[in-house]
Amino acid sequence: MLRAWRTARDPRLLPGPVPFRGHRSYLTQLDMALLLGVSERWYRALERGEDRGYAPEMIAGVARILGLSPAQTDALYRGTGHRPPPRAAHATRPDEAMLDLLHQQRRVSWICDQAWDVVAANAVAARTARGWSARVRMS
Asked: Hey, is 126 helix, strand or coil?
């Protein structure tokens, strides 16, 4: 899994300077080790799935360098025996057109984010489900 993520990552899209080592279109294990500040042997052990008590900071660095999605990052943390860090709640608000459509609905309707948290609900939902709707912004 980790090897596939590493070889799929385009080195030109990395967040920081990359050691220039030829014209490869993928990252090597040595590239990852240099970027993480660990030995190539240590990174190779991580990629092989060896249990060496990797620091959560190293796992966070791998996720950042490889640009992993939240689900991939969670899988990496769990695979190394760590609990995934809590994600910040999204403060994004649905756009006005979506909110207008939501409020035109005559039945219970709501909008969820990617974590399935309700971020907006219509008035029918507010009347029907008073307990949970108190925590939802009825914009």
From this structure: helix
Q: Which two tokens stand for residue 106?
A: 């005559």
pLDDT at 130: 67
Q: Contact at 8 Å (CB) between 66 and 46?
A: no
pTM of the complete model beyond 0.85: no
Task: State whether residue 31 is helix, strand or coil.
Answer: helix
For the chain, the structural domain boundaries read 2-79, 96-133
> In this predicted model, what pLDDT tens digit does every residue of 60-113 receive, in sequence order?
999 999 989 888 999 999 999 999 988 766 556 788 899 999 999 999 998 887
Return the axis-axis angle of helices 29-36 and 56-66, rounded to nearest 10°. 120
- Residue 45 CA: distances (Å) to CA of 41, 61, 67: 6, 16, 20
Residue type at 93 in one-letter notation: R
Q: How far from chain centre, in Å, is Cα 5?
A: 14
The CATH code belonging to domain 2-79 is 1.10.260.40
